[in-house]
Amino acid sequence: MGVRGANGAGGPSGFAARLLDALLPVQCVGCGTWDTVLCPACARLADGTEPDWHVLETSPPSPDLGVWTLGEYEGRLRRIVLAAKHGERVGLAGFLERAGRALGEGVAASGLVDGARGEAEDIWVVPAPSGWRRRFRGQMVAPDVARGVGSELARSTGLRVRVISCVRLRAGAPSQSGRSAEERRSGRAGSMASAADVPPGVAVVLVDDVITTGATLRELARVCGTGTVAAAALCRAGPRTG
Ligand SMILES: [Zn+2]
């Protein structure tokens, strides 16, 4: 809870929020069970099963990407992600980080970061950039997931890992919310820019919250360059090949 509400922006400040938490009945954000923010069954969605993966085709020179997700954007997982993105008082950072570690395990096991490409010396884990509204309100999902991915990749590959927001949205880039698949695809191209160039010898792993058309990951891969090897996201909406 420490990252938001310190100055009262967007909701009750720290002490008042804790008081409200203590007074109001809570329900699991995934299934509605009373008296818990996240019940044990829903908490297990983070890392109870092996993440699945698919291949996302990109445009050359970016290589096609292996993309790991916890599953489809539906049911309890969808409600948890929505709560993390839009909820005012829920603390789901722990869930997001554990999910990130599970996804990182999948990426590491694939050998993409240290095997197939051979010479990676460092790994950069790059979260998708958020619009200013979400940054302002502290409701950022990808950075928490990225921390989990990074810690697991560091543990299992032994490489140096940095979680780094080296991609930014260009000024005036439109929000993707409420847009059609076609609008999303065309709207993303050119919408991001580099905030720090990826050095040679660095393998890049991209992190997003929900994959819809894949347009966000393709744009991230375009900006990060040919060192981009894999991606991780909480869930996948729509057709797999998107
Ligand atoms: Zn639940």
How are the SSEs placed, and which strands pair?
Layout lengths: L13 H10 L16 H4 L8 E5 L8 E8 L2 H12 L6 H18 L11 E6 L4 H6 L4 H16 L2 E4 L3 E3 L11 H8 L3 E3 L7 E10 L3 H10 L3 E9 L6
Parallel strand pairs: 2-8, 3-4, 3-7, 7-8
Antiparallel strand pairs: 1-2, 5-6
Helix pairs in contact: 4-6
The protein binds zinc ion.
Family: Belongs to the ComF/GntX family.
InterPro entries: ComF/GntX_DNA_util-trans, PRTase-like, PRTase_dom
Protein name: ComF family protein
Describe this structure in words.
This protein is an alpha/beta fold. The protein has one domain. It has 8 helices and 8 strands. The strands form 2 sheets. Strands 1-2-8-7-3-4 form a 6-stranded mixed β-sheet, with helices on both faces. A two-stranded antiparallel ribbon has the order 5-6. α8 links the parallel β7 and β8. It starts with 13 loop residues before the first helix and ends in a 6-residue tail after the last strand. The structure holds zinc ion. Zinc ion binds next to α2. This is ComF family protein. InterPro entries: ComF/GntX_DNA_util-trans (IPR051910), PRTase-like (IPR029057), PRTase_dom (IPR000836).
Short synopsis of the structure:
Belongs to the ComF/GntX family. The protein is an alpha/beta fold.
